[in-house]
Amino acid sequence: MGCGASVPNAAEFLATAQPAPAEGYVATGWPQSIKMKGWSNEVHAYHHPSEGGAMAGMVQWVMNEHADQSDDPSETANWNSSGCGKGGCGVPEALEICDLDGQPLGTLKMPRHLSFGIGAQLKDPAGNVLALLCTAETKRPQGFSSSSYQVLVPRPQFQGQAPFSGAWYVWATIRRAPMTGTVQIANGQGAPMGKGHTYMGYVGWNLGNQKWKCENASGQGLTICTPTAGEKPARHHVQCAAGVDVALQVCLMYAAKLANDELFRADNTN
Asked: How far apart are CA 16 and CA 12, in angstroms?
């Protein structure tokens, strides 16, 4: 299962059913095929020079900062003529997730683009937080170095697991490397879970057009994400093999996007 330019045929790639995870699912009752609103494309902005060495707020930011973020579309955070700070630029976004009949399954609450230390929250339709997406870095990473993003869940993944922060436990870590769309994925014990791959290319203003696949450590297909057909703007059509934790797969896909979005961007206009 390589990472070439062509997205595999979903029926063939996802043909192998997976065992139900021993730790349970991030969200129960999700079907293996869902639709999801795509995050807006990156804003055309850059960071204040001080962001090259800014410190992260870590997990508490993900819980606390979301409560403070305004949904006012006119608001731009931490922006001045010298660039944006860790609050990012633009507005926070709520990415609705539903089944193929349009029944709500949850929402991924995204931070402003180019933020750092804020992350995302996966919520169920009642507003309960199912998972946090947090940077694993203590300072804003540079594009020429590797960096990681984590998926945290409010219960242990394995017996004896220590919480990462408060009542939150690491269930997965994605690690990106320079000059590639592929991320390596490890579980809460650091053991390899597989890898994910973002297909690069023009996507317009909506990342719903961006394609993604994920496979386990044995190369068996877990997830294919392609744009919905006949919709403008397109949404994600996420398809998973039988037995796969669909909510966790959504978190992994967006952890990879957030890991790239938080990279330091210098002002190259001068």
From this structure: 8
Q: Closest by alpha carbon to 183, among 69, 260, 269, 105?
A: 260
Instruction: State how far the Cα of 133 lies from the Cα of 198, in Å rounded to an integer.
Output: 18
Sign of CA pseudo-dihedral 13, 257, 131, 96: negative
Query: In residues, how long is the chain?
Result: 270
Structure tokens at 235: 């949404």
Three-state DSSP class for 59?
helix
Residue 39 CA to residue 94 CA, distance in Å, equals: 8
User: In angstroms, what CA-CA distances link 165 with 111, 138, 173?
Assistant: 20, 14, 15
Q: Are 172 and 183 in contact (CB under 8 A)?
A: no
Q: What is the full per-residue pLDDT of the chain (270 aa) written as tens digits?
A: 444 468 999 999 999 999 999 999 999 999 999 999 999 987 667 666 667 543 333 444 455 545 555 443 333 445 455 678 888 888 999 999 999 999 999 999 999 999 999 999 999 999 999 999 999 999 999 999 999 999 999 999 999 999 999 999 999 999 999 999 999 999 999 999 999 999 987 787 788 889 999 999 999 999 999 999 999 999 999 999 999 999 999 999 999 999 999 998 887 655
The two tokens of residue 205 are 């203003």
**Both tokens of residue 150?**
């984590």
| Integer angstrom CA distances of residue 194 from 71, 162, 173 | 36, 23, 11
| Domains of the chain, first to last | 10-261 (2.40.160.200)
DSSP 8-state assignment for residue 113? B
